[in-house]
Design goal:
The structure holds 2 protein chains of 2 kinds. By secondary structure, chain A is of the alpha+beta class. Chain A is built from 5 helices and 9 strands. The longest helix of chain A has 17 residues. The N and C termini of chain A lie far apart (62 Å). Chain B is built from 14 helices and 3 strands. Chain B has a 3-stranded mixed β-sheet, sandwiched between helices. In chain B, a hairpin with a 4-residue loop joins strand 2 and strand 3. The longest helix of chain B has 24 residues. The relative contact order of chain B is 0.11. The chains are: A alpha+beta, B mainly alpha.
């Protein structure tokens, strides 16, 4: 009786451990940036083929250096993402989507919109009316396209060493 | 007696199995679950154990990029309250082109809301980087740069501070624990709840911790050295001459006035930084800037 119970518990533990690895051995990661991009080639100069949002799940198909080829929407679309845009943590977007349901532990679960968020910023701004966020909002709109970056490097004759390193 | 031995064994097994590939927290969570299942302790006791482990295991790593983003926005607002923005679209466009190109080639090109750069309208020699990638450079500091290569070194140094999470590390440990513990409760999502009020207080504390070390006291000598090292690696990777960093520090050394509340207070002396950079690297070749690069640099920031 005790032995059976031991075996069941041991199997359950093993099950929990294996839960993080999908059956086909492919790794699933979460997008950890506000707006993520899938590119045709493993480079920031690559054409954007799809956009993903914070918390979206992507399946890793292959790796090349710091770049990962991922597939989305059930494998219907593929593209390259830089590893720094991805996390192994699962990002739960809705409140109440708990670790129990996803089977993830506290450590693996990041709750989007929790903690320091828009509401906390609003409350903080109420207490610090001298702070002006207009320039902060403006700064966030300063975006340089990959084409512009490339032209900037080429025109300035900024040539990376043989190893590469262009964005 | 025999049963309790078995249960202890099971808990040990759970801890050992999981500890091999996960954190203590995960292990304890599982072990606690097994303990509850076996009736060694009640659910309430299990909950208490889980909570205390959670508190201990809380660290900077548990802040999501989204939370860092909100911290960064407010730290940026504090910076803007000290120094006004330099509202010159061309200058800021040039700074962002150079800065974002460098960031894209860095080890951490993707952060929650991207890297953004702004010139501050001040003669002080100063620069700041928020944890979320907002980077500010004063006109006074830009004037220390004879070339684009030198300016690239400044921006790369600030990108280094972001990637090495120096700002986040200035937050007091107790505050980190507090923030992340409150965050774990469901009520923290409801505006007006005691949790949001408590979080706002902690948030406010975190902003002032970062502002205090970034603006008033400066980071440690070792953080500055790390950022210099990261900058040398990054500019070289993109194709700039790292000697630009030395050129910039040499000008800065002449311009800094002792007693000022800028880099004179918050950074190691330029000649000490030069010595450290040179001890890490064999001699750099002098910067020979192509004509077009120097012209666009002077056109963009030569007049400020």
């Amino acid at each position: 009786m005790l032995r059976t119970r031991f075996i069941i518990t041991a199997l359950a533990l093993l099950g929990i451990l294996c839960m993080h690895i999908p059956a086909n051995g492919q790794e699933t990661l979460s997008v950890q940036v506000k707006e993520g991009e899938l590119r045709a080639t493993p480079s920031f100069l690559g054409k954007i083929v799809a956009r993903v949002a914070y918390g979206d799940r992507v399946v890793v198909v292959s790796d090349r250096g710091a770049w990962k080829k991922v597939s989305i929407r059930g494998g219907t679309l593929q593209g390259w993402m830089h590893a720094s845009a991805l996390t192994t943590k699962r990002i739960a977007l809705k409140a109440g989507q708990t670790s129990v349901r996803t089977g993830a532990t506290q450590d693996e679960l990041a709750l989007a919109g929790k903690g320091f968020n828009e509401q906390v910023e609003a409350a903080f701004r109420k207490e610090n009316r001298n702070l002006d966020y207009a320039w902060i909002n403006r700064m966030e709109t300063f975006k340089v396209s990959p084409d512009l970056m490339n032209n900037f490097l080429v025109q300035g004759n900024v040539v990376p060493p043989a190893e590469g390193g262009k964005p | 007696m025999k049963k309790s031995l078995w249960i202890t064994g099971l808990i040990m097994l759970a801890v050992l199995t999981v500890a091999a590939c996960a954190t203590v927290q995960t292990a304890t969570t599982l072990a606690t679950a097994v303990g509850e299942q076996a009736g060694v302790f009640s659910r309430a006791e299990g909950e208490a154990i889980r909570k205390s482990t959670v508190a201990v295991a809380r660290s900077l790593e548990d802040f999501t990029p989204e939370q860092e983003y909100y911290i960064g926005r407010s730290v940026g607002a504090v910076v803007i309250s000290k120094y006004p923005a330099y509202a010159n679209a061309q200058v800021n466009q040039y700074l962002n082109t150079l800065g974002q190109t460098l960031a894209a080639a860095s080890d951490k090109p993707e952060i929650f809301s991207g890297y953004h750069f702004l010139v501050l309208d001040s003669d002080d020699i100063n620069a700041f980087a928020t944890p979320s990638g907002l980077i500010f450079v004063t006109k006074g500091l830009i004037r220390c740069c004879p070339t684009e290569d030198a300016l690239a070194a400044i921006l790369a140094h600030e990108i280094g501070h972001v990637q090495l999470r120096h700002g986040m590390q200035s937050i007091e440990k107790a505050r980190v624990t507090e923030a992340l513990t409150v965050t774990a409760t469901e009520g923290a999502k409801i505006l007006g709840s005691p949790e949001v009020a408590q979080l706002t207080q902690t948030f406010s504390g975190a902003i002032s911790d970062i502002a205090k070390s970034m603006i008033n006291n400066g980071y440690s000598r070792s953080f500055e050295h790390q950022a210099d090292k990261a900058a040398v690696v990054l500019v070289q990777r993109v194709g700039y001459n790292p000697r630009g960093m030395i050129d910039m520090l040499t000008v800065m050394d002449k311009k800094l006035k002792p007693g000022e509340l800028d880099f004179a207070k918050t950074h190691p002396a330029p000649r000490d930084r030069i010595a450290e950079i040179e001890s890490d690297n064999r001699s750099f070749t002098p910067v020979t800037t192509p004509k077009f690069r120097q012209e666009r640099f002077l056109r963009a920031v030569g007049h400020i």
